[in-house]
Structure formats: structure tokens, C-alpha cells
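REQUEST ID: PR-0412
SUBMITTED BY: lab tech R.K.
PRIORITY: routine
TASK: structure prediction, single protein chain
INPUT:
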Amino acid sequence: MAETLPPDRNRSAGKNRGNKSGKVADFRYKRPPQPDGRKSSRETRGKTQGAGRASPDLADIGALKPASHGEAYAALDLGTNNCRLLIARPSGRDFTVIDAFSRVVKLGEGLATSGRLSDAAMDRTLAALTICADKLQRRNVRLARSVATEACRRAENGFAFIERVRRETGIALDIISAEEEARLAVLGCHILLEEGTGPAVIFDIGGGSTELVLVEAGGEGTARVPRILDWQSVPWGVVSLTDTVGRAEDSEAARIARFARMKAMVSESFAPFAGRVAGAAGHPDIRLLGTSGTVTTLASLYLELPSYDRKAVDGLIVPSGEMREISARLSVMTPYERSTLPCIGQDRAELVVAGCAILEAILDLWPARRLGVADRGIREGILRSIMAAERQSERSLKALHKQRGSQAAGRPAR
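STATUS: complete
OUTPUT:
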């Protein structure tokens, strides 16, 4: 369990549109007032209180009482393509997941061309967030943080949608910067870094953006969070890249040309980062770890799983050459052929090719022999942030009480 957090310089970077990055929503969730003034049945049964209070900064968590038995923490990640929730209870220096939710909502569908979130996409997302709000209420959640990423950062109506979510579900989403998104991803999955002495790149292929993070050289993944040396975020994810390039795949030649265009666009965006890390990439023991639906899907195909199995995929180490071969095969398949493959299905059939193009561009700039696969990331990073901050606050309070006790007894505190 991480005690310290990676650096998050210039936290105000990005389009936060009125929401300060780095806040924790400190309230128990309940539904907004019903139109007829009556409480919902869940509100009547659950004794939730304190909804609507302003959320404090992480540094202010010390004002809150320690978690009592049965209370939980929650992390919600609203991305460009997925809505994901994780609810956990502290377990020693780590946590135990007690509930989870994930749904493909395609919030950023069409955003690359229109600049706005569509009504259909917002309605789909609100339906998923309503389910999340119910879970947050039922699970006795005391501290939660809910974040929104690239789609809400880029959309003209992103902040208006955030306000609508708050009114209709009670969930206070925080539009975080790309840098904080990268930091949270590292915090959530660094423990899975392959053993080695060379530098490492951790990447997150999202729906609307991709984050690349260079971390310091070191041994195998430990509780200590590796220091971030450099990072870059580009506005290419599986949704934004697919929408920009288009979905025409009429012939094999068209599919090959489409994939090449995708890869070229991503490689051009990665060029500044690639230039800065070129020296580190020449180390003989470089390591690579990816967290995204793309890498977990390709890992499932590598293992020939009949259906997705998180336990088999999370922490897997795959030869990079094998991932390239799978990527090449997928890029020339028709959408229907891809949809029939286990672990892809209809939801990922249109988007996985863009993910493959991004992955290949990453492998070109950071040619590690093997690729680590993580089915964890931002949500786990949020949970670790909350818990680490609260432990630090508890230690500070104990030290303060000890000092006051010593002063009252007339002797200096040690």
C-alpha cells in the first residue's frame, strides 16, 4: 500500500471548467428530492445524512472521523467510453473490494467531430450513474471520489453535463487534468511492474486520450510508488481516434490503409515524448506496463480465453511480439469477424483496432521485449490516495494529541 503519492505538478493544468482538481466528495449519497416531495424507498430504508456538503481537499480529511466498522470508500471513473465504480473497505494496509460496476456508455461518441456530448450519450451515461448512485447509497460509503476525464475536459457542454449529473444522481464528478489522470493510473497499477533494474513506461489507453508515464528505474513492483520522470497525454483514445479516422472498412486494402493512418497520427503525437525518452529506451532492461481495455482484450486473445477472466489477465506478462501479431490480425479483420471473437464482442469490435494502432505506436517508441498487463488503474489509484491521505491525517492527529498532552503535563513532547 503506497504511503506517498507520485508528484502531481501543475495540478491546475487542463480544462477543469470550474472544478478544482484533487477533491474528495465527502458525503453519503442519496437521491435528489423527488418531484412530489416524497423520499425514495431507498432513502427511507437507509439512514443517509449529510448529502450536499462541500467536498474538502485531501489535506482536509483529518477533520473527518476514522472509518468505523462496515464503512466503505468508493472510486468512480467516468471515461470517454466506460463508466466504472469500485467500492472497498480497508483491509490492513490495503483494501478489499466489496462491490464493482462497469458499463460501456460511449460518452464521447461523436465528440471528435461535433465538440459536444450528444443527448443519447449523456442519457446512456446518466442511466449508468444512477446505478452507481444506488450502489454508493446501499454500501454505507463514507468517502468517495468521482472523476471525469477526457470527454468532459474537451466537450463544450462538459461542465453542464457534470452539473446535470449532480442534480439527477447526487454524484459530484470532478473533471481532472490529464496529468492527474496519469498520476492516478500509476498509483493504481505500478505494483504490477515486472521485476528489473531498468526504467519503465506505464501507459493508459483510454477512450478519449492516452497517457504515457516514464518512471524511475528500480526493482520489482513494491509498495513504494515509483517517481515520475516524464509524462505525456495525447488526445487519441479508442473512441476519439476511431471517430476522427472514420469507420469505413469496405475492403482489406481500406482496412490496412485505415490502420496505417491511425498509427501515423498517434506516432506523430507521441513524437515529443519519444524524443525525450530515447536515451532511456536504449537501456537493455526497459520495462512496460499497460492498463486499458485494449491490453486486457489482447491478453485474453493471447491466452485464448473463452470469456474474460480478470484473475488470468491482471498481472500477466506477454511477449511484445505476440501482442503485435494479434494486433496485426485484428487490423485486417472485418468488424463482424472481430465481433465473433471471444472477449471482444460487439461493444469492442469497432474500437479495438484504434487501440491496436495506439499500442503499436507505444511499442515502437518503447521497444520492451515484454508487456505487463494490468486490469486496474485510476479507480485503484483513487482508493489508495484517499486511504493514504486519511492515514496521514490520523498520524498527524495522534501527534497533535500527544503534543497537547505533554504540554498539559508540563513536559516537552518527544
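NOTES: The radius of gyration is 22 Å.
REVIEWED BY: pending
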